[in-house]
Design a protein that fits this description.
With 351 residues, the chain is α/β, with parallel strands linked by helices. The chain is built from 14 helices and 13 strands.
Length: 351
């Protein structure tokens, strides 16, 4: 089968990592044409078993939506199907479409975006569903929320769990890592990440003589929010350090060396940082939200009551006494995820 894979989101956070991880399996299974920004073409020039379409039209742009170049569409429509790792679908595609919706957090969490911003996102989610033969998502929780908030009609919804990329845990010797006493938070200050709960818990611990440092992965300058209380609160608490923008290798090092990762989220579609930390030999404390109960039910994690700072403080003390996690359940892998995607596409296209 001839596939067109939209690769314009390579390097774009979690979606880029997701695509980067499944792409080798897609290329192995299909005769692939990759849609790439010009800046990324050089990374694929040495690959002889693919074709490349250079396209500098930005994802989710008006031009993508209503005026996608006809010469590119002609090339796309000569293939058997189109796949996007997210919910952007250029206009004018006539072959079967397959997309991935990782979560619908903007529809579920109030005030995360403006009313206009929320409506725009809902439009793109629904448009992707309407145009797709199959929509993939990364958890039972996300699937349930999609069914609740959007109209599936005849579109199939298939769960393909997320996973830690194989390259992420390369060269990690868990037994030789020297642990420090740092606590680690990986995320942003959007309401659903629950940072406010962690800061309150951290203050409770400090009042009891707790001297551990809290590392927040990200730039303090980028911590902009309508709720300025969080930024003010951060500046008033001692022993908090921002890492600034860091590389994947540095993030892996922080995971491996830190004593705990704390993920106080109110909402996630999957939630990768706990999985990454566990894979690096670091214990995690996570909120007891439904998706974490689903994803991490068989993993050695410590749950706390969501949005309860006192309970989080207690659970941090409890988790600090635990030995590092040993061998993890072999449940999630991008090979399995890709296998589900490939089989689903082949089944639909061959009908």
């Amino acid at each position: 089968m001839k596939a067109v894979i939209d690769c314009r989101m390579l390097g774009s956070g979690g979606i880029g990592t997701y695509l980067q991880s499944i792409l080798p399996f897609l290329i192995k299974s299909f005769e692939c044409t990759l849609i790439l920004y010009t800046k990324d073409v050089q990374n694929f020039n040495s690959m002889k078993n693919i074709k490349i379409i250079e396209c500098n039209i930005k994802t989710f742009s008006l031009k993508e939506l209503v005026a996608f170049p006809k010469e590119i569409l002609k090339q796309i429509n000569q293939n058997d199907f189109y796949y996007s790792p997210y919910c952007n679908v250029p206009c004018g595609i006539m072959i079967p479409v397959f997309t991935t919706i990782h979560d619908i957090v903007f529809l579920d969490v109030e005030n995360l975006a403006s009313k206009t911003g929320t409506l725009v996102r809902k439009f793109f989610y629904q448009r992707a569903i309407n145009k797709s033969k199959t929509v993939f998502t990364v958890s039972e929780f996300s699937a349930g929320r999609i069914r609740k908030k959007l109209r599936l009609q005849k579109t199939h919804l298939v769960i393909t769990y997320n996973a830690v990329p194989g390259w992420f845990t390369e060269n990690i010797s868990k037994n030789n890592i020297k642990k420090n006493d740092n606590l680690l938070f990986v995320g942003n200050i959007k309401k659903h990440k629950g940072l406010h709960t962690l800061l309150e818990a951290f203050k409770i611990l400090q009042n009891k003589g707790f001297n551990n440092k809290l590392l927040i992965v990200g730039n303090s300058e980028n911590f902009r929010t309508k709720d300025s209380s969080i930024k003010n609160e951060i500046t008033e608490i001692s022993n908090i350090e921002f890492t600034g923008k860091i590389s994947d290798d540095k993030l892996k090092e922080l995971y491996a060396c830190s004593k705990l990762l704390i993920q106080p989220s109110l909402y996630e579609g999957f939630g990768m940082p706990p999985m990454e930390a566990l894979s690096c030999g670091t214990n995690v404390v996570i909120s007891d939200i439904p998706v974490f109960k689903e994803i991490y039910k068989d993993f050695p994690v410590t749950y706390f009551e969501c949005e309860n700072p006192q309970n989080l403080a207690d659970k941090i003390i409890e988790a600090l006494q635990k030995p590092s996690p040993g061998n993890l359940p072999d449940i999630y892998s991008f090979e399995r995820t890709s296998d589900i995607i490939i089989k689903s596409i082949k089944n639909e296209v061959s009908k």
